[in-house]
Amino acid sequence: MSRWDFVGRTDELNRLLSAVGRPQGRGLLFSGSAGVGKSRLLREGVAALPTDRYAVWSASASATTAALPFGGMVQVLPADQPQGLSPAGILRWAVDVLQEQAAGRPIVLAVDDAHLLDPPSAALVHLLARAENTTVVGTLRNGEQLPLPIRALWTDDLVELVELGPLGATETTGLLAAILGGPVDAGSAERLFRLSAGNPLLLRELVLAAAGGGELTRTYGIWKWTGRLELAPSLTDLIDTRIGQLTDGVRSVVELVAFGEPLGLHLLERAVDPADVETAEERGLISLVHDDRRLNVRLAHPLYGEVMRRQCPVSRTRRLQATLAELLQQVGTRRRDDLLRVAVWRLASGTAQDPALLLDAAAQAFGRYDVPLATRLARAALDADGGFDAAELLATILMFGDRPDEAIRVLDSVAGEIRCDSRRSRWLTVRGMVSYWGLSRESTVEEIAARADELADPAHRTRVRAFEAIMRLHRLDTDTAVRLAQAVLDRPAAPVAARELARCTLAHLQAAQGRFRRSATAIARVQAEVTRWRGDMPYLQLAMELARGTRLALAGDLAGIDAIVADEFADLAGAGDFRLGTGYLAILQAYAARLRGQSDSALKTSLGACAVLATSRVYAGLAHAERAQAAAQRGDAAHAAEAMAEADRTHAPGMAVLYPWLEQARGAVLAAGGDLAGAAKHLAALADRLRADGLAGHEVLALLDLVRLDQATTPVGPTCTDGSRRTVAQRLTELSEQVDGVLPPLLARYARAAADGTAAELLAVADGLAALELTVYAAEATALALHRLTRDRSVASGAARERLAVLLGGADEISTPALRLLRPALTDREWQVARLAADGVTSRAIGEQLFLSSRTVENHLQRVYSKLGVAGRGELRAALRSMPGHDGEDPV
């Protein structure tokens, strides 16, 4: 790992530098807890000060120097001090020496850990702070006894005292990425942030321990933490110091909270002396937080619990957890999570004897998408003779934990216990799910269809038929899928979960067909029944999200994507390691970022999706296809080609319903590699295939990609009776009357304008696309308009160029074929002259800098003006800003 970079704290750093630059010389002290980053902030601020302008002295107090006169200023004062002076005389001498060394420059005195200054040093700091030409900056630790001269610094208004809080989640993620040399998986970053509570020192110790123990791995460039916490001795010692010595009573309080948090205060006080609870709170070991009407107790820092649990003997650990379970059962498991907590404590303490309790808890954990915990509880239920029900649940959870082979073995182990249609239907569906999606066996569809006929009860048969329907959809047997799903919905006796799974199948197909309103209505009905199906089939959420995500993506509803990425399921899936859920939502998030022009975020998020889905083939191909799109949009042809190859390698044949996304990505990769003819041919063939498959929603986007390649007049579709074929623009116009939403008519208008419309019409389309936050499409439409205006030497080109500059100014790096139209063939020298002239540098100064005569500079400028189609320097800056690559790389 590299040296820890300085990340975040921009506002605080600017505040420190501003304090130094104030005419009145009022200083600044940062206070905060140990490890929060005060010292590093001070060092960065001091390092940014020019020593030719300021006389900068840095002092660092410590416990060692606190007992020595002027020990805290040993790095600042001369080694030889005059003898025979009174204490006041020595202070005057010290001030005079520092003023003399400053040689007229303003003095900046930086004091780290000023609370540890010895009395003479503290007095000297106070005297210097009173001088007109001196600014004192420094750090203090919260909760420490302060020397009176230091406290007087802010009471006398000589310095400003600022509390430095912990890093936020975003800053912590940035710090992790900086130190590890690459982005970090969102779930890993969140867990490390929570454990460190935003404290950089604790975060450092956690990362070093994880790296040293091999618990940090890198997949597709994304760092992921296994979650196993190895506490290095240095970290344990640090936490031990914070916790300090504990009486037996206070230790019991802290240990119970460590194993039970959040723990109701009323429950804790049934087990310990309330006076010990008060002591623990006063010492900052625990904190009380309100949760609805309950007052809960938590540890003051997450790592306290890790250390206390590690140091607690096994026998006492088991006794404490059994005590917690008994206490909660005595008062009654009234809250939703109480049953789950009791089961976990019983299991950990070795007192779990009721398989029904473990099974119910496992189902509850899976309903919250906590895959590791659900696996643990379901396995324990099976080991406790939970029988068929435990095996069915465990196999289902193992499927979503990317362990399909083990899931099949578990199911086969209870095949002999199937004695009724209810069990047979459940066994068939779970085994079919594992075989089809987990092991990618396409023959599963026919097998499950044949076995369904063995069921005499029509209600139980509908469960199997609902699964058969969604499997057939996924392999694009759409007519049969619709027939089966509709048959399930038509049977009143069908279980709720089966009905809603069938409804999701139809909703997904309706979205792909462009019937967005019907799809949205169906999904709303599925959501309305969530409390009735989640306990039976929590993984139905994935089918719902796939249908909903497909609709939103095809409709260009980026705000809708934002909403589902931020809802409760996303949080639960991320916290519970439900990878299929988090992976798919990350793909959607990357898609929305890409269309907004946020290519950095799109690439990082899609890489994260690839890493999360590395062990699963359900959505892995889709994740790599989105990564290929993001790389292609940035003009990175090599990365795009590599990602496309991975998409082909990891794409599961049983997920054929996703082929439109992969084939669209393939067109983008061909275009990024410079094969525009090949890309156009591929996309035209894709549009024909989508038309044949009846997937009009996808066809619209494939045709849009042809428009973006300036192929609006390309023939597509079958030959008409008169021997002609429809153009892309004509076909989009037809689809605008069939596909729901505001986007298809706007895209049809775009295609007509690109084919034979005016620049003004293209700019109007760009405004409509920008209003939908489709920044990339808006920029490309504007670029096409500008290309035409420049070609025609229109006076309106300047305004169009400004509009394009605004669109690209809010985006990251974008390099698409449409935008590359604007890249003129300037020579390297012409680019140099153009950039300097755009920055306001005079021709004479440009000549001196580039060793050219003024006449040569002017000749270069005239050629630049001609190639860019601008009238002079007034339009030159906007022209450069409106080109991809204007941010530092020559766009040639």
From TrEMBL:
GO terms for cellular component: cytoplasm. CDD domains: LuxR_C_like. GO terms for molecular function: adenylate cyclase activity; ATP binding; DNA binding. InterPro entries: AAA_16, P-loop_NTPase, Sig_transdc_resp-reg_C-effctor, Tscrpt_reg_LuxR_C, WH-like_DNA-bd_sf. Residues 819-884 form the HTH luxR-type domain. One of its GO terms (biological process) is regulation of DNA-templated transcription. It holds the Pfam family AAA_16. The keyword tRNA-binding does not apply. Keywords: ATP-binding, Nucleotide-binding. This is LuxR C-terminal-related transcriptional regulator. It comes from Micromonospora sp. CCTCC AA 2012012.
